[in-house]
Amino acid sequence: MAFTRWLPAAPDAVTRADAEAAARRVLASLGLTAIDLGIHPRGDTVDRMGYVGWHMWLWAESPSDRQWGPVEARATDSGVSVSLSARVAEVTWEMGNGDSLACQRGTAWSESRTQGGRNVASPDCGYVYAEDGRYTVTATSEWAVDWSAAGYTGTLPLTLSRSADVIVGELQSVAVGG
After folding, report:
1. Cα–Cα distance measured from residue 55 to residue 33, given in angstroms and rounded to the nearest whole number
2. What does the alpha-carbon distance between residue 49 and residue 60 come to, in Å, rounded to a whole number?
3. Suppose 84 and one of 15, 93, 126, 147 were both cysteines; which one would form an S-S bond, judging by CB atoms 3.0 to 4.6 Å apart?
4. Does the pLDDT at position 5 exceed 80?
5. How far apart are CA 160 and CA 155, in angstroms?
């Protein structure tokens, strides 16, 4: 006796574009955020302003995994199994005057690192302003996000930024004589 059995249709093949789109959705669900800016002198008030010719230290302030990485994730999106790994590759600091510099995490300023607060350069991420003024400093974290899904692999670019306003003053010596 012969009989006919109907099987469901074969699933549509997953394209590279489908796999990458699934990886982007998984990445968006991670809640990654820009670093908190570590800046010294802070420059957020006149009492804590920076000075022309003074070494300003720049660093990622106590970054969490969601601000620095590495973050590993595995998820299924639209039937596609996705694995990804994300980490900050570099931070670009735009100093508000047209200058920029690229750093890694940076070193947090402390009095012990500067022999009691002296004008000492940061060992790995610092800047010196040449003119007084008010500047908006922006730190842009450039993430490297490696993904794999449905037999495809790639790297997704991701940039996250945070800004802070800083005040830079100029010290002038005054001779007092009599």
Report:
1. 27
2. 19
3. 147
4. no
5. 16
